[in-house]
Amino acid sequence: VPAGPVMLTCGVDVQRDRLVYEVVGWSPDKESWSIDASEFYGNTSLEATEPDSPWAALDVLLAHSFPGDGGIDHLIAMMAVDSGDQAQVVYNWCRRHPMTRVIACKGSRLASMLVGAPSPVDVTARGRKMQRGYRVWSTGVSIAKAELYGWLRLPRGDGDPPPGYCHFPEYGESFFEQLTAEHLVTVVNRKTRRTRMEWHVLPTRETHWLAARILARVA
User: Fold this and answer.
1) Number of Cβ within a 10 Å radius of residue 104
2) How far apart are CA 218 and CA 137, in angstroms?
3) Which residues, at least 6 apart from 80, have a Cβ–Cβ distance to it below 8 Å?
4) Which pTM value belongs to this model?
5) What is the pLDDT of residues 132-146, one digit of tens each?
């Protein structure tokens, strides 16, 4: 972790066969450093207490201490976990940790803000939502993608990097292909003939590292 006032967050993308995560260091002006990125393979439908569950490895990651300049050790301040797949397992794992460190998120293409108000997900025996139960956070994925792609285009220049500048170690090509796997496409409504911009995945690309980075930003 670089020197300075840097806070660590982590984004976790949930797939059927693995958890994809990235730990990102942030300065107050949102200059960022990718600290760690990897995958925990296993059946994500298994609870953390079951053998070979990848969720147990995520517990270890959350408790891991990352060394920094000057002998300072850093913990992950906040982790955001995607609940679009295996939602109940995600909620069960997240509720084992305080919401001040771990939140479950669900992306919304139409959201008007990066992070919306949390919504209750637990229900009573009569099917009503428990207002004091566990909550999931709505996230504006379109907003986050536009922001990230703008940051990725920033030139390094001379002197200090600009706010939002992204630093990466020498990850493999697949990481950066996934990080840049989507592009904006103009879509025309056949009935109204109105146009809107939508994010579409490029052919043959996967998007797991993009999802993990967005969740780290949300966190």
Assistant:
1) 25
2) 10
3) 9, 10, 11, 12, 102, 103, 104, 105, 137, 139, 215, 216, 218, 219
4) 0.91
5) 678 899 999 999 999
